[in-house]
Amino acid sequence: MIPVSVKGIAYDASGNPVVLLIDQKEERVLPIWIGPLEAHAIAVALEKANLPRPLTHDLLKNVCDRLGAQVSQVVISDLLDNTFYAEVHLVLPKEELVLDARPSDAIALALRAVTPVFLSDKLTSHMLNIKDLFDEEAQAELQNILNTSKEEEKKLLH
User: Fold this and answer.
1) pTM passes above 0.85
2) How far apart are CA 64 and CA 67, in angstroms?
3) Strands, DSSP E only, in the chain?
4) Could you tell me if 124 and 78 are in contact, meaning their C-beta atoms sit under 8 angstroms apart?
5) Which residues is 99 bridged to in the sheet?
6) pLDDT tens digits for range 26-51
7) 34: exposed, middle or buried (C-beta count within 10 Å: 0-12, 13-18, 19+)?
8) Residue 133 and residue 69: Cα distance in Å, rounded?
9) What is the C-alpha radius of gyration for the chain, rounded to an integer number of angstroms?
10) Is residue 76 part of a domain?
11) Separation between Cα atoms, residue 93 and residue 81, nearest integer Å
12) Would 146 be classed as within a structural domain?
């Protein structure tokens, strides 16, 4: 498995949301197409927005907390018939569970639980090389976005 981070939500030419998972070297990206409601849930978590009422993924995190369950990791585990699969790993006081999940739900929960996201080794071949996706100008703009994200993360940590 390789660790990945959620770099944000992009939109394809048709306006469909895509969650972008990027490797630690920020050289390869795995795009996963998701629904608009799931994109909203992920965006809210990425922005650390405070909403007046909990969303579904906030509720799930609150239930885990109240039951003493810790979301230990999320794994984007498989791709079958053009559908990605994910696992949510839970640690409870007396057992560990692995739950099947949609990647969008697993990612939204992982962001709220501040839990690592991993990509199974068999899916790394589906990652795209960032340099192959963009011309030099677009690469520079993307690198600027990535650097800005790093600076914002540092501010949040201090």
Assistant:
1) no
2) 5
3) 2-11, 17-23, 28-33, 70-80, 83-91, 96-101, 117-119, 128-129
4) no
5) 88
6) 999 999 999 999 999 999 999 988 88
7) buried
8) 40
9) 16
10) yes
11) 36
12) no
Give the whole-angstrom CA distance, residue 108 versus residue 39.
Answer: 9
Domain that holds residue 33: 2-131
Q: How many CB atoms lie within 10 A of CB 104?
A: 22
Q: Say if 138 falls within a structural domain.
A: no
What is the per-residue pLDDT across 96-109, written as a single tens digit (0 to 9) for each? 999 999 999 999 99
Cβ atoms of residues 91 and 72 within 8 Å: yes
Helix (H) or strand (E) holding 137: helix 136-157
Residue 148 lies in a domain: no
CATH at 52: 3.10.690.10
Total count of domains within the chain: 1
30 token code pair: 């795995």
